[in-house]
Amino acid sequence: MRLSTPAWILRRIRFSESSLILTLYSLDYGRMSAMAKGALRPGSPFSGSLEVFSAIEACFSRREGRELDTLTEACVAEPSAPLRSDPLVFAFASLWSEWAMNMLQGGEPSQPAFHLLGDGFRLLGSGAPGWPVICSGVEKLLRIAGLRLEADDCTRCGRPALESTSWNHVSGGIVCASCAGPGDLTLAPGLVLFLRRSQKAPLEAVSRTRLWKGGFRQCHDLLRDFAEAHVQGRLRFRSLAVLEDMQNAR
Ligand SMILES: [Zn+2]
């Protein structure tokens, strides 16, 4: 079956001397894996069009029962050069991509997920500060994946909990003062405000938010712990260690 779709390249792995296996998130087919045969050969028609974090128009063939599609043609729709020219920006784009791979596992397509991915890559490529884009982007991504962080109403009694900073990952978010117990976390008030803002505003508006030094790292840890409380197993982020090394060296 010959098919085509716009898609973001989330990961590329060298498969043999000359071929690549791509992880894509596509508008029409959701997450896909596709083999690009001979892509690394000089003069390949794929040459220069399969860079990671770029958007392509992908033509591919799919066979029933096979997990791996075969890419037959690719045209670059949005190049990823701005994301690949600065190592720090590249590391943030990698983290964004890893979140997408962790949270968008199934083959069901999601238009909001496809567009959110693009918004994140474009903002990172345009020089927006990395951490707010990642943190608000992940909050939105979790919501699309069915894991909304409840920051307004108590997750135990349902009453408004705007003054509270008690939190429980398993119950789904904020816990009011009367329901809070010993097993609950206490968040910095700024984190709760940031989550509320992220839920009500587009990514671009939230990307200019500032928190205290280390605040966004705390926020990222919170999002990660929340996601891990609701999915099977630990989430893997290889780019996080790279980012930490880079930021410690600055
Ligand atoms: Zn309550």
CATH superfamily heading of the largest domain: Recombination protein O, C-terminal domain
- The beta-strand count equals 8
Unreliable runs: none
- As a percent range, the share of helical residues equals 25-40%
CATH architecture of the largest domain: Up-down Bundle
Q: Estimate nothing, just give the exact number of structural domains.
A: 2
Q: Can you list the ligands bound to this structure?
A: zinc ion
Helix/strand structural class? alpha+beta
Proportion of beta-strand residues: 15-25%
Task: Tell me the number of helical segments per DSSP (H or I, 4 or more residues long).
Answer: 8
First-residue to last-residue Cα separation: 51 Å
C-alpha geometry = elongated
CATH level 1 name of the largest domain = Mainly Alpha
If you compute it from the alpha carbons, what radius of gyration comes out, rounded to the nearest whole angstrom? 20 Å
Q: What is the string of helix and strand elements?
A: EEEEEHHHHEEEHHHH
